[in-house]
Write a structure and sequence with these properties.
The chain is an alpha/beta fold and 256 residues long. 29% of the residues lie in helices and 19% in strands. The protein binds NADP nicotinamide-adenine-dinucleotide phosphate (NAP).
Amino acid sequence: MISRRRFSQTTFSFGLATIWAAPQCGAAQSHEQVLVAGATGRTGRFVVQYLLASGHAVRGLTRNPDRARSRYGDAVEWVHGDVRDPQSLEALYLGCDRVISVLGATERTGENTPEAVEYRGNVNLIDQAKNSGLKQVIMITSLSAGRADSDPALVARFTGMQWKNKAEHYLRASNVPYTIVGPGGLRDYEPRLQGIWFQTEGQITVGTISRADVGSVMAEAARNPAALNKTFRIINDPDLPVDGWRDTLSQIPVDA
Ligand SMILES: NC(=O)c1ccc[n+]([C@@H]2O[C@H](COP(=O)([O-])OP(=O)(O)OC[C@H]3O[C@@H](n4cnc5c(N)ncnc54)[C@H](OP(=O)(O)O)[C@@H]3O)[C@@H](O)[C@H]2O)c1
């Protein structure tokens, strides 16, 4: 049964410190519902935490809701779905305003590969968002995904990059409002230790970023219109002020 549930933050048990969970001072709380694909993932968990902190209701798409509920509690409405199966997605969108994809393939070869999950799975999410009239699709890719068009050596080294690249092209051409977030190497260090450097294509070629900081940026994109129809790459930068990126977001140009 899909409902529009709202949960108290106190029941949210992702086992993470709450120092960064407080919403930005003075920021309005959201009343929207967001479907998060990849909500159980190492980065998706942070996306969820920030969304809940800013008042969103979160529906978490997972292949195993019982496991998700036992590990992460019931602050999220856990729903069963597999992005490889478009028919499993339709009902999950009911009542949702936006969808965030933090999907990651779990196999290099086999059935749950980058092509199946990060390209075809994201295509299924985007198509369903279009059919359901959602306000926005927010999708994680990678710092280097844009270069897969022109850098065969990169594709040879990171075979999944071409599929992230194709997902980016598909989303930009979909006519669904979107935000594409391409982070550098994901790290498990704490959030807000450093600033976040936001740039457009080709301006950053190497760098790393805290998974929690990526979660913060993706959740912000769900409520900040300045993020709409933009593709940006992000890495941590110790020389930037910790929260300065919130202003930088509006300076990133809309995609051509
Ligand atoms: N590693 C890096 O340095 C790096 C850098 C830049 C970008 N990235 C990208 O960032 C993304 C997130 O990475 P991560 O490490 O946070 O991912 P992760 O921990 O491996 O999580 C993967 C998530 O995808 C979900 N998933 C996988 N197959 C699915 C399917 N068929 N249907 C529905 N859900 C499915 C899983 O959900 P369930 O198991 O609950 O179903 C899980 O929540 C990935 O695309 C990754 O390539 C990684």
